[in-house]
Design a protein that fits this description.
By secondary structure, this protein is of the alpha+beta class. The protein contains seven helices and seven strands, in the order H-E-E-E-E-E-E-E-H-H-H-H-H-H. It has helices at 15-19, 108-132, 137-149, 153-166, 171-187, 195-208, 212-363; strands at 28-29, 33-38, 41-50, 54-57, 68-73, 82-92, 98-103. Strands 2-3-4-7-6-5 form a six-stranded antiparallel barrel. It starts with 14 loop residues before the first helix and ends with a helix.
């Protein structure tokens, strides 16, 4: 691990660049040749430290904060140099003289190649050293810091726990472990956060020595517990709301069932009444039809009798007329005969009178 470098006070033109914080990269000791242009000439320098996103050059000559340089980094004798664009963001003129050059954004392919180089050389050597022995907590901390940089928090946490078993009184190692647990708590779902484990390590750490890390860890744990409690209350509220909705749905289904049953009973009762009414109607219709048929028969009989009576009456009238005609004829005949008889009687009487007169005459 390098000593914190002393920073040269930047010029006014570079003040804004110097004020910005450096990316959180883990530095490794490495000596690589870096070629770059300095004015009209080309020159080179060697690195003292490297990381996945920056270089520390040993030379400070001609560098100012804010300058941009094209750097050609020799990674191996057989490969072409890696060309990257770097921005000077820190210059140290003190005992640990050097320049920090950060990789400019927008060159992902080059950055990925350099990270791969760092992992295959610096990180791999560090992993080998830690695998051989964990008696050097500084190497463990450095490796765990890199694991955290690349998001391997679980690996870092496991390594720190294992190293702490061999170095139980190492305060910085405990602090790093607690910080890793805090990060795990922040990243883990609230229900899966290792709060009890964090509290236990914080308590053990207080017994080892004082540190602001314990208070920050307590704050993280308290915030996580509060968040967990808030989520628990929200979950209870959601569960209560879900239960309420379920009860409402159950009541709605029960209401629908009751309504359906009542409706079915009403329909059944209505159908029974309708069937009874239809039966009664058909029966009455049958009776009415029978009565109507009988009435028609009676009417026909009455009509026939009336027609017969009318025919008899007509016949009687005709007979009476015939009798009257016959009577009139007989009366006429009798009157004629009476007249003839009266005429005959008058003639007879006249002859008698004549005979009487003749007789009387003759007697004279």
């Amino acid at each position: 691990m390098a000593r914190p470098p002393k920073i040269r006070k930047p010029s006014s033109s570079a003040a804004e660049a110097e004020a910005a914080p450096a990316p959180g990269f883990v530095r490794f000791q490495a000596m690589l040749r870096v070629d770059y242009a300095q004015g009209e000439r080309n020159t080179f320098a060697y690195t003292s430290y490297v990381s996945a996103g920056e270089l520390w050059l040993r030379s400070t000559s001609g560098f100012e904060v804010g300058q941009t340089h094209e750097l050609k980094i020799t990674l191996s004798a057989k490969d072409k140099p890696l060309v990257v664009t770097g921005v000077v963001d820190r210059v140290d003129d003190g005992d640990g003289a050097g320049v920090r050059v950060a990789f400019a954004p927008g060159q992902d392919a080059a950055a990925q190649r350099f990270r791969k180089f760092v992992e295959q050389t610096c990180v791999a050597k560090l992993e080998e050293a830690v695998a051989r022995s964990m008696r050097s907590p500084e190497k463990v901390l450095e490796l765990c810091a890199y694991y955290a940089e690349v998001g391997r928090h679980a690996d870092a946490l496991a390594l720190q726990k294992k190293a702490l078993e061999q170095n139980p009184q190492h305060l910085e190692l405990r602090e790093a472990l607690v910080r890793a647990l805090c990060e795990t708590v922040r990243l883990a779902p609230p229900g899966d956060a290792p709060l009890a484990e964090l509290a236990a390590f914080v308590e053990e750490g207080r017994a080892v020595g004082p540190s602001e890390t314990w208070d920050r860890a307590d704050a993280v744990r308290t915030a996580a517990e509060q968040e967990l409690e808030r989520l628990r209350r929200e979950e209870e509220a959601r569960a209560a709301e879900a239960e309420r909705k379920a009860q409402q749905e159950k009541l709605a289904r029960l209401r629908e069932k009751i309504v359906a049953e009542v409706d079915a009973a009403a329909r059944e009762s209505f159908n029974r009444q309708l069937q009874q009414l239809e039966h009664d109607f058909k029966q009455r219709l049958t009776e009415a039809t029978g009565a109507e048929s009988e009435a028609r028969k009676t009417a026909k009989r009455a009509q026939a009798e009336a027609e017969a009576a009318r025919a008899a009456e007509t016949e009687a009238k005709a007979h009476v007329e015939r009798l009257q005609q016959k009577t009139e004829q007989q009366q006429a005949k009798l009157a004629e005969e009476r007249k003839e008889r009266e005429q005959a009687e008058r003639a007879l009487k006249a002859r008698a009178d004549e005979a009487t007169a003749a007789d009387a005459e003759s007697r004279k």
